[in-house]
Amino acid sequence: MTATNSAGTDTQAFQITVTTPPNRAPTVAITSPTGGGTVQLGQSVQFTCTATDPDSDPMTYVWTSSRDGQIGAVQSFATTTLTKGAHTVTLAVSDGQNPPVTRSVTVTVILDLDTDGMDDDWEALYNPSGLEPGDDLDGDGFDNLAEYQAGTDPTDPDSHPPVSTGPSGISCAAGTGGAGPLTAFAFTLALAACAAASARRGAGHSA
């Protein structure tokens, strides 16, 4: 810097350091689908995300299915081509400056022509004519829909959805089978089983 007045000129040097703040990664969230849902084969599924970059960098989007590979390259799209089965769909958003930010969501595609909530191929494994969701083939207190949701065998009484542990370590039905409610009859059976187990344990202690 140079200053001049009637007395003369004086010069002083200064060093100025300009620091560039580090580039920041985008903020990303998948807003659709919400995850864990089940859709019909051929049904349209909407994939949408929100993404903001604090440095206003342009962003790219890549959606990848664990079963089908890349399924999209934009912020929002719909597809009817997901294949049958369980998909983990991962979104990778890149601003070209930082490692991609990834988010994942799960979607299960089933073939359910009778719209009873159970995959037709799963039903055919146990009955070629299909199963009724409210029936209990093996009499274990859990209906077919609960067995389907839990991934258990509806024809084997020893294969059933998990039960909760009651007092003194006695396993008692919690009132739900898998992700769906037990029927009133099933819950009654479960309570009876708990009572019987409690009585047997009590008799053993008093002996």
Describe this structure in words.
The chain is an alpha+beta fold and 207 residues long. It has two domains: 27-110, Immunoglobulin-like (Sandwich); 120-206, no CATH class. 18% of the residues lie in helices and 33% in strands. The strands form five sheets. Strands 4-10-9-6-7 form a five-stranded mixed β-sheet, with no helix packed on it. A three-stranded antiparallel β-sheet has the order 3-5-8, with no helix packed on it. A two-stranded antiparallel ribbon has the order 1-2. The chain is rod-shaped.
List how many beta strands DSSP finds.
14
Beta content comes to 25-35%
Which series of helices and strands comes N to C? EEEEEEEEEEHHEEEEH
Taking pLDDT < 50 over at least 5 consecutive residues as the criterion, the unreliable ranges are: 173-184
The value of Rg in angstroms is 30 Å
Based on Cα principal axes, name the global outline. Answer: rod-shaped
Number of helices: 3
Overall domain count = 2
Instruction: Report the end-to-end length measured between terminal Cα atoms.
Output: 102 Å
Biggest sheet strand order reads: 4-10-9-6-7
Oligomer: single chain
